[in-house]
Amino acid sequence: MMRSLYRRKTILAMILTISLLITPGLQGSLDLMAASQEQQSTSSPQTAPGDVPFQRLLASGKQNRLLTCDFYVKAEFDRAISLAKPYELSPGILKAGVIPHHLLAAPLIASFLEASAQQGDFDTVIIIGPSHYPTANKVITSYCGWQTPFGTVLNDSEIVERLVSNIGISAVADDDNMQLDHAATGLVPFIKYYLPDVKIAACLLSNKLEKEREEELAKELFRLSREKNILLLCSVDFSHTLMPIEAAEHDLQTINAVKNFDYATLSSFSDTNIDSPQSIKILLRFLEQLGISKITLLDHSSSDRILKTSLTDPLFYGGTTTYQIYCAMAQS
Hints:
Layout: H1 2-21, H2 29-42, H3 52-60, E1 66-68, H4 74-83, E2 93-99, H5 106-117, E3 124-130, E4 139-141, E5 145-148, E6 151-153, H6 157-165, E7 172-173, H7 175-180, H8 182-185, H9 188-194, E8 199-205, H10 211-225, E9 230-235, H11 244-259, H12 263-268, H13 277-290, E10 296-302, H14 303-307, E11 322-330
Parallel strand pairs: 1-5, 2-9, 3-8, 3-9, 4-7
Antiparallel strand pairs: 2-11, 4-8, 5-6, 10-11
Helix pairs in contact: 4-5, 10-13
């Protein structure tokens, strides 16, 4: 049943993206998408021969390829970049953010990352988000980097190794699942474009992840933040399957729970509020370890507002999807 729900959401996301692609001035985008997918399917796995850490991992058998950005469509990416307006962040040092992974909201993703780029140099971006194709493994990661249209993104293998070796987290490397899941792979081209020198480590979470593992993951992220300048990105979408009035009511519940660090309420939420309460709770626990007690809502939107399409349109047979953008700042 869970797989069926994720399949419906993935199909709806594809339909919404196609709808946006065929708006005036973007008629050629479908051809670009087809060409991009054909090129990706026929190309052999790529490596980064000049990267010593990559070669060391290759020799160890832990990393044998670069993942490809299968959700990248040039016309839509360029459009998102052109529409981006960097958010005005609160005073302080950016430590974490919440952004969508639904690429219909790509301009919001770009706006946050453009603002992030103005914050200085990060060593690593750590992505946490839902596993849309859950397996028996409740925490999925990968030692692989990514090949993007803007060059290679290196994996922070030291961080991944910590997630795998920490028995309280017990992350499992699953390269195929990582590449398939837009919660991480969909964001990578934007990260490379705006933060070209960072490494990436990604972690996809089951919605059945135990509280103890959430807490240990937050603690490990805190320890890592003492060793490296990391940016923690929580890749989540919010209300699903509801019509706009109901979705707005659920979003208000979620905003209040997030701002109040209300773990009990967040734990009670389903897809009608947020697709990964686990990711948000880990981010909030991480902030508390840093001594940060405030998280700021920067933006709030939805698929129906972005598409500006009548709700009687078949696109909305499964309801709307909402997006909330947050930042968390440390005292400078």
